[in-house]
Design a protein that fits this description.
Layout lengths: L6 H8 L21 E8 L2 E8 L10 E7 L6 H8 L22 E5 L16 H18 L2 E11 L1 H10 L11 E5 L24 E6 L10 E3 L2 E3 L2 H11 L2 E9 L4 E8 L2 E10 L13 H5 L9 H10 L1 E2 L2 E2 L13 E2 L1
Parallel strand pairs: 3-4, 3-5, 5-6, 6-7, 7-12
Antiparallel strand pairs: 1-2, 2-4, 8-9, 10-11, 10-15, 11-12, 13-14
This protein binds 2-acetamido-2-deoxy-beta-D-glucopyranose (NAG) (8 copies).
């Protein structure tokens, strides 16, 4: 199995990139290996909680990348884990390859919002600063309980949680700076309508790697914008364009796959290939994109999608680390016969 790995990957692994500082959780015994268990922290005087999935084969002397996944409005952390299957070793490989840490072993973390929502929407029961503080407190707690690679902390989220991922990416003057890359899925970017008027989006650096996954047939988060459940929704292309300018992107290349139903755009930003990407599927509604039927698809009577969000997300994350800018290229997903233009 190991022999089949592309040489480029082994080469990259053996380069011995500068390691992040050892966290106090290194060497500590984890009792919940292979499982997902709840953790509590006190944050802004409130008791907050999050789920942690520790990969099978967890070695407390190895520093693991961390992915935070933020649920949608009225959803829970447990439901998001179930819907996305992001804890599946298929997407966060672990057990079979204990000696090849570059291959994507990850600690999966699912935080819970206050009253099942995240800041940024009119229905939120938390403020942006409370939720940013919570993320900061989650990261501190993780560092003291697990051995983590602080150069490889990533954020993804669905819907209201996807909107919060955008807020994190815009909070480079605080905890947003601790993340190496962001992916929003069907995100509701209410706050993007306010950037530059009420407050500024402040990314930690240019480029701040970020990707957006959306369906054109989304009847909750309208692709073309409009009045959403939690306020005014800017059009998704306008949000992506804001990042083209924040990240100083150019050299757009696009690809169409599945007979033109999936459109992928990728930019070079400040010299970093593929630091901004946008994946758009024509018939997809407000669901977690997966080729295997998910609950969010069932609920609206939709079948599996052409896009596999987990694949897009993990491959995007694996390209970026705070201690280096990768130039591994664009379009890392298998797009089944897509054409480059
Ligand atoms: C952790 O939080 C959950 C959910 O809020 C709560 O039910 C539980 O009692 C808390 N556990 C501890 C040890 O504080
Ligand atoms: C937490 O509670 C203490 C005591 O009531 C108060 O002084 C402090 O301002 C509160 N902190 C936050 C972040 O709400
Ligand atoms: C929490 O959100 C609900 C739903 O939008 C709202 O009715 C309620 O007033 C909010 N509570 C607080 C304390 O903001
Ligand atoms: C959460 O919702 C409950 C019930 O609607 C409400 O009483 C409470 O104030 C809300 N909490 C916050 C922090 O808004
Ligand atoms: C928002 O502010 C930034 C920084 O000041 C500026 O570069 C950008 O053009 C502004 N965008 C809009 C839409 O006004
Ligand atoms: C494209 O459409 C043709 C004809 O409908 C179909 O046979 C083929 O499987 C489709 N290809 C993809 C990648 O969806
Ligand atoms: C576009 O590509 C050229 C040639 O590779 C490169 O010099 C330039 O920096 C790229 N533009 C951006 C915005 O990264
Ligand atoms: C688009 O979404 C609506 C509402 O969920 C659904 O009725 C319709 O079948 C969808 N259209 C396509 C082409 O999937």
């Amino acid at each position: 199995m190991v022999l089949l790995l592309p040489h480029i990957l082994l080469l990259t692994c053996s380069l011995g990139l500068a390691k992040a500082a050892i966290t106090s959780g290194c060497g500590k015994q984890a009792t919940n290996v292979g499982l997902t268990t709840p953790f509590n922290v006190t944050s802004s005087n409130a008791s907050r909680n999050f789920l942690v999935h520790v990969p099978l084969g967890y070695d407390n002397h190895h520093q693991y990348p961390v992915v935070l996944a933020f649920h949608g409005n009225t959803e829970t952390a447990a439901e998001l884990e179930l819907d996305t299957r992001l804890s599946d070793p298929k997407w966060s490989p672990s057990a079979s390859l204990p000696s090849l840490p570059c291959l994507g072993f990850k600690l999966m973390v699912y935080p819970n919002g206050i009253n099942a929502s995240w800041a940024g929407a009119s229905y939120s029961n938390s403020t942006i600063s409370q939720d940013l503080q919570f993320v900061s407190d989650v990261l501190s707690d993780l560092s003291s309980n697990f051995c983590i690679d602080s150069n490889k902390i990533y954020a993804t989220g669905f819907s209201n949680g996807g909107g919060f991922v955008d807020i994190l990416a815009c909070s480079g003057n605080s905890v947003g700076a601790k993340f190496a890359a962001f992916v929003a899925a069907s995100g509701a970017y209410y706050q993007e309508a306010l950037y530059n008027s009420t407050y500024q989006c402040v990314p930690a650096k240019s480029p701040t790697p970020i990707a957006f996954i959306h369906g054109l047939n989304d009847s909750d988060v309208f692709y073309d914008g409009g009045d959403g459940e939690g306020g005014f929704l800017p059009a998704v292309p306008a949000v992506v364009d804001s990042w083209v300018s924040r990240n100083r992107c150019g050299n757009l290349s696009t690809a169409d796959s599945y007979n033109g139903t999936v459109h992928i755009s990728s930019w070079t930003c400040d010299g970093v290939d593929g630091a901004l990407e946008h994946y758009r599927e024509a018939d997809m509604g407000h669901v977690w994109a997966s080729q295997q039927q998910t609950f969010s698809q069932l609920v609206i009577g939709e079948g599996p999608t052409k896009l596999e969000a987990n694949d897009v997300i993990m491959k995007f994350f694996d390209k970026f680390s705070l201690d280096k800018e990768s130039n591994w290229g664009r379009f890392t997903i298998n797009w089944n016969g897509g054409d480059r233009h």
